[in-house]
Amino acid sequence: MSDEWGPLGALAGEWEGSGGLDTAYAHATHEVRGTPYLEKCTLKPFGPVDNGNQHLYGLDYRSAMWRNDEENPFHTEVGYWLWDGATGEIMRGFVVPRGITVLAGGTAEAGATGFTLKAAKDGGLYTIGENKYLAENASSLSYEVVITTSGDSWSYDETTMLRMKEFPEPMAHTDHNTLHRVG
Q: Is the pTM above the cut of 0.90?
């Protein structure tokens, strides 16, 4: 893939991972538990997108996760990964159909094989938006994802800190997986 996509070039393609682990509060059992999941993700390159003197290259992405042999995914995301080669800025903007939007960001060198993106509620440049229900019951305080690429695979470790009415202190909701190229 062309250098215009910087470190995002390694993520372009179709991916699957069967070793995901979602650690979150389960309302059905009233406990925090780890749940294995299967993930499918597609990242399609586009660009440039010109904003005045800024030239962004990106990946249009869709991701879905399934527990066990469920027919319907328990989690889906749609969004964009963006790279600004002039500044080294990487952004990931995505929507989760529970009423959450996130714009996370960070910086990296063009040839980096790893990078970290962060966002915070009312976080200025990189922020989290959520609907009224979530704000009252499970508000996302911060989001961080660490990405590592290696040949025909890539991994992520994600932590979302939540303020939940079930807990007196913020709770860490974590997800991690390694995805392998399938197309």
A: yes
